Inverse folding.
């Protein structure tokens, strides 16, 4: 098991860096190109959501990402916006509410469909979401080839 | 890779050819371009994403926003896309029912 940990400042331009690292790590570990496309997209969705949450809530500390390889690829994206404690579908509902609130108040950020998590669910083998006072962790897994 | 936009007129339609990556960082540039077109009275827009290498939900959100704006003026926003990896994203998000997706600019322009 090899682990790469990244901390990116909450700036949309840095999301691309995480996408590149995720794809490079997947490729190094023999994951197929079609799955790498899904990894690229899901990682971007999770990091973009986390960065937007930090920006909306005025947090300047970095978003943290842990990527673990070994029999597949696991990626955890962690933001530090305190939310109601929940897990599974309830946590997804908490995130959707927070995203909708951002869209309603951030005129500069019209975009970002609240379905970002739904999109991740559609392209990864497993997704778990946990929200709480310490922030939100979106964990994604791909089994490999 | 950054995002590049090329806009041209095709009869009543305005074709926006997009190349590069449409993500949380670059999507605002596309949103501004679509806003400018609508503000200039261009209500029939074709967005060609054939040279787009990456599209995320932020980019889709911009397209949905553009569609809402042109519809307010009885306009249309059509998308030219044949890349399977992008079509997959439209399918997963259910947006194949929202957008008219075409195989070429000529097909889109001939639509209405």
């Amino acid at each position: 098991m090899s682990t790469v940990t990244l901390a990116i400042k909450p700036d949309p331009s840095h999301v691309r860096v995480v996408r590149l690292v995720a794809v490079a790590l997947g490729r190094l570990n023999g994951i197929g190109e079609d799955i790498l496309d899904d990894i690229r997209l899901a990682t971007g969705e999770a990091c973009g959501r986390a960065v937007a949450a930090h920006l909306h809530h005025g947090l300047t500390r970095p978003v943290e990402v842990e990527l673990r390889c070994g029999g597949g690829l696991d990626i955890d994206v962690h933001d530090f916006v305190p939310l109601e404690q929940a897990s599974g579908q309830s946590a997804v509902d908490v995130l959707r509410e927070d995203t909708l609130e951002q869209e309603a108040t951030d005129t500069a950020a019209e975009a970002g469909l609240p379905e970002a998590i739904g999109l991740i669910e559609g392209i990864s083998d497993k997704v778990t979401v946990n929200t709480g006072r310490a922030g939100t962790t979106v964990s994604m897994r791909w089994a490999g080839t | 890779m950054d995002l590049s936009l090329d806009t041209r007129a095709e009869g009543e339609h305005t074709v926006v050819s997009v190349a590069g990556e449409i993500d949380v960082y670059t999507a605002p540039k596309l949103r501004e371009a679509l806003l400018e077109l609508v503000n200039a009275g261009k209500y029939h827009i074709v967005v060609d994403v054939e040279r787009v290498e990456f599209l995320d939900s932020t980019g889709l959100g911009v397209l949905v926003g553009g569609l809402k704006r042109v519809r307010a003026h009885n306009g249309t926003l059509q998308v030219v896309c044949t890349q399977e990896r992008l079509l997959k994203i439209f399918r997963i998000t259910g947006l194949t029912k929202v957008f008219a997706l075409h195989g070429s600019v000529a097909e889109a322009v001939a639509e209405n």
User: Anything to note?
Assistant: Residues 3-111 of chain B form a domain with the Transcription Regulator spoIIAA fold (CATH 3.30.750.24). The beta strands of chain B are 3-10, 13-22, 44-55, 76-80, 100-102.
